[in-house]
Amino acid sequence: MADVLSVIPAAVLRNLSDKLYEKRKNAALEVEGIVKQLAVAGDHDKITAVVNLLTNEFTYSPQANHRKGGLIGLAAATVGLTSEAAQHLEVISDLLCVPDLVK
């Protein structure tokens, strides 16, 4: 997780779980830009770490705002991956099996 914190600033992670949608949206746009840079650099280990962080720490959280931030963050990360999304799609698509998130 320390590796991810060096990639995504703490303020962005904090804003992903904010109660205001605008803050979550802006944080997700920053995640998209970061993932886009990582995809261009071919750093798939860090991309995997970002996806795992968003999945484990946000989307599986019992707090609703964390889950919302995790989902919008994963959507932004997928957009940032563009044509390289197939490598990480299995982890992202597993979220569809979580009943609380599909409601």
Automatic annotation (TrEMBL):
PANTHER family: PROTEIN VAC14 HOMOLOG (PTHR16023:SF0), TAX1 BINDING PROTEIN-RELATED (PTHR16023). InterPro entries: ARM-like (IPR011989), Vac14 (IPR026825). This is ARM repeat superfamily protein. One of its GO terms (biological process) is phosphatidylinositol biosynthetic process. GO terms for cellular component: endosome membrane; PAS complex. It comes from the Eukaryota.
